[in-house]
Write a structure and sequence with these properties.
By secondary structure, the protein is α+β, with helices and mostly antiparallel strands. It contains two helices and two strands. It has two domains: about 80 residues, no CATH class; about 35 residues, no CATH class. A two-stranded antiparallel ribbon has the order 1-2.
């Protein structure tokens, strides 16, 4: 006779607006992860809850890692490669200061 088991599944999803990270306007990326584990039918609620929390944490870490991998290469200063906060121009504060100073003094950047 086949042994009865119960299944615990946890998932996590996230939609990312790419324009927020310096990507194209009106484009988004969807991320999803799901993990499942079978437990003996006799398992109590506490064991199932602990398993669910562990699986949900794994799914969240997987998704957030993928989001970080995608977005870390975006939103970089086009001049020096450092993290840029100005999404319109994608120039970091240091380079923007030098650029604005050069404009005032009519010097090439």
């Amino acid at each position: 006779m086949k042994e009865l088991k119960k299944s615990v599944t946890a998932s996590y999803s996230r939609k990312v607006n790419l324009a927020h990270y310096g990507g194209p306007q009106y484009e988004s990326a969807d991320f999803f992860a799901s993990f499942s584990e079978e437990l003996p039918i006799e398992s109590d609620k506490e064991t199932a809850l602990k398993t669910y929390k562990r699986l949900h944490k794994q799914a969240r870490e997987e998704v957030e890692g993928c989001v970080e991998e995608l977005t870390s290469s975006m939103n970089k200063c086009s001049n020096c490669g450092k993290k840029a906060k100005n999404q319109d121009k994608l120039i970091c504060a240091h380079c923007r200061k030098g650029f604005e100073g050069a404009k005032k003094n009519n010097k090439p950047f």
